Amino acid sequence: MSEELESVLNESRIFPPPAAFVDKARIAGWEALQALREEARADHQGFWARLAQEKLHWHTPFSVILDDSRAPHYAWFTDGRLNVSYNCLDRHLADKGGKTAIIFESDEGATRHISYAELHEAVCRFANALKAQGVEKGDRVVIYMPMIPEAVVAMQACARIGATHSVVFGGFSAQALKDRIEDAGAKLVITADAGHRGGKRVELKAAADQALAAGCPTVEKVIVYRRSGHDVPMQPGRDIWWDQALAGQGDDCPPEWLEAEHPLFLLYTSGSTGKPKGIQHASGGYLLNAVTTMEWVFDIQDDDVFWCTADVGWITGHSYVAYGPLAVGATQVIFEGTPTHPHGGRFWEICQNHGVTIFYTAPTAIRALMKLGDEIPERYDLSKLRLLGTVGEPINPEAWMWYYEVIGGRRCPIVDTWWQTETGAHMIAPLPGATPLKPGSCTLPLPGIEADVVDAEGNPVTEADKGGFLVIKKPWPSMLRTVWGDPQRYYDTYWKQFDGRYYVAGDSARRDQDGYFWIMGRVDDVLNVSGHRLGTMEIESALVAHPRVAEAAVVGRPHEVKGEAIVAFVVTRGGRPSGEAADALTAELREWVAKEIGPIAKPDEIRYAEGLPKTRSGKIMRRLLRAIARGEAITQDISTLENEEIIKQLQGEA
Ligand code: WT7
Predict the structure, then answer these.
(1) Counting beta carbons within 10 angstroms of the beta carbon of residue 250, is it exposed (0 to 12), middle (13 to 18) or buried (19 or more)?
(2) Distances from the Cα of 225 to the Cαs of 176, 182, 195, in angstroms?
(3) For 188-240, what is each residue's pLDDT tens digit?
(4) HSE of 210 in the Cβ direction (CA atoms, 13 Å)?
(5) What distance in angstroms lies between residue 418's CA and the mean position of ligand 1's atoms?
(6) Which H or E run includes 175?
(7) Is 400 in the pocket of ligand 1 (CB under 6 A)?
(8) Is the pTM of this model over 0.85?
(9) Is 21:433 a contact under the CB 8 Å cutoff?
């Protein structure tokens, strides 16, 4: 067992909700939370129907709550019609038109305030521009943008006209972009000349050009936002500047009233095998859980300044930047840059200068900032903060305590939120005015979410602290609907293990004596690097695509800041490199993977051997490789290995 797991096991501190927080909380106290849970347990569908009616604006009310006739392809509120962009913008105009929706801070530090009325106008005009470029309901639009308000405008504009967007993280390479455009069959791409992050320019248009030159036959038009201002080639007939596309477009764009199941977006995520999966989300159910979790978990109130640091390229940037905060009429911060540029206090400076009250980030960022020392955050006034949150991976208790004491001043509850791209919204998380916290635990499932830990037969693990498979036993509104274009993969990945009875999250977990959930990690070959899921298969395919690589295996190793580091074992064509030749090849392969997938997938370490350890049936012995990568003693039986010498090579001893 790793050190981290052990320290989690020893954690016994409990932090009840502070009285001052409970006094003003939306859900105040344990009984209030239990009442919601009871309501959901007594009538699961009635519970979600009540919330859907109360929290969303429906153009056509629904009469069907849950359609399970094609289970596990569940459908929610099927005969209802609504528009997500209307729910996020139009419905606030009467009483909140002048309220700030977005406080934007650029990489260089320039700030911009955008009111709900201004955002509504921008979205309507851009939606009209999309229509003028031939985008229709049901078309797919790929968004490959920097973290700027226009990315949200683009997403909301798609939602308004019923185009299904697929945001590709700006840190992904041309190759990754091409794969996603092609899988989605996108008609139009929205990008920028470049992005600005940490003082560096990210050449988005160049990458988009490269992707389109390599394939992508479905793409007809490319809209380019001028962020950087440097020269980029524009292909006549295909490329159009954002401003030109807007020219002459009015700000009146009535929303399309869409079926609740209309696909709002696809978002690609890594799996253990094959190409990335296009996770398909619906409209009504997705928005409902974005709203309920903004209220329950973030306790969002009218005067809050909410800041979720995630990029719109990830699910967190969808649910808690582009949709959730707007749907509840909140004020939020959007920041283009990085936590440490131009100095290590950038995040805390933003919290101070914009009066952030709710701050939501990833454990990897917390650990990185913790390493810089307490004196940095201590320079800033963080007294407006009232609630902190984390997402993406388990937070180690040391980082939790630092976050709690140094950033939150022992006054702010921390909501550790477990969820996934597939779940659309928080699933297991505390309600800050109701749930006692334990550092390192995401606590308990939200009302209406039937999470459990089961054994290989699907029976609940009743023994405290015993690990098992994390499953969800009942459908929930914001669940993924399918894998785009591959319903079989949807079934095989998420349902097959227990014959369609339970949604299988792919995480292992345990529950303690109080029923609290402790996430133990992924069960498949997926790494969690800085809070992002990377398939080992994908990195391996990228490596073997290099002419010098014959075979490759990739595993993770615990890393202090990133959660997991990527270790690659490589067999080269024509002799095992050593010394300077090995270093040169390593540098080349790291760049190669960055180009094939993106810089986040770069192996931290590459080891060369004449072969990889395999079972008799030819399967790579990954557990063995993991032990080697961690420098642990080998406990596996290696007597069947043809060439034991390669173990020494992989250990770096030969
Ligand atoms: C995987 C989902 C949901 C947005 C961020 C990542 C891990 C997520 C937690 C948490 C422990 C967590 C799980 C999960 N994870 N949140 N609070 N505690 N682990 O989204 O890329 O879809 O990854 O991230 O392993 O399955 P994603």
Answers:
(1) exposed
(2) 21, 22, 10
(3) 999 999 999 999 999 999 999 999 999 999 999 999 999 999 999 999 999 99
(4) 13
(5) 6
(6) helix 174-184
(7) no
(8) yes
(9) yes
